[in-house]
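Reviewer 2 asked us to include a model.

Predict the structure of this chain.
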Amino acid sequence: MDSKQHQRAAQVGSSPAGRAVVAAWLVHLYTATGAALAMLTVMAVFQGATVRALWLGLAAMVVDGTDGMLARHLQVKLHIPWFDGALLDNIVDYLTYAFTPMVLLWSMGYLGDGAVATVLAVLPLLASAYQFCRVDAKTADHLFLGFPSYWNVVAFYIVVLDLDRITVALLLIVCAVLVFIPVGYVYPSRTERLQGLTLALTAVWLVSYAVLLSQVPSPSPLWLTISLAYVVYYVALSLHLTTRRARERRAERIPLLPVQAGPPRGPADS
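Predicted model (structure tokens):
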């Protein structure tokens, strides 16, 4: 590169538009670190470091929970319109939310042995593959349609609570079926209803995740209660919003009956 090209590159990098493009690329790179975290998680699993794998899962959740807000704030779609950040996010999410948790549960023996373990490991992956390819997976009012493939959260509770194989199998099957049931689940960073409260409680839940992970294999009952209370809140709010959406749709489909005019009123009728 000659001196003129260096000068032009410097001018582009120092201009507001150039800085915006650089910032947009950094956001995409931030999202892509989730793929690296997924690989590190698999490596930790194969090394028998289950707790380290779950810590990496927490880091992946933090990245996933913040990259979208950064992307919207910095308008990355405007500055790099030809790069599909949503597709990148889906690829990373499938790895961190579906694939690596199943590798962890399978390798640690929570799924049993032989063909049963294989089926239980593959079932969530197939269900999530379907969900990630749905064009309506996220609704216009910012809800996830169907169980949002939170297999990493499921795996976290399985390990922390040290659930038995039968309970694990039932839990995975139920959640896989819920992928196909059109219940709207809260999208914490985007669902507008009670968003401030939801974000605050999500932050508390992330703290509880870290505390419980530091306490394995003897988690505190208090922190378990705090953690599971958030799950109850999340499910309750999701069901409430789903019910409200159903009522609103029914109301939109009911035609308004025309008001029938009565006979002309004379002086005696007034």
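The beta strands are 143-145, 184-186. Residues 16-249 form one domain. We have added this to the supplementary material.
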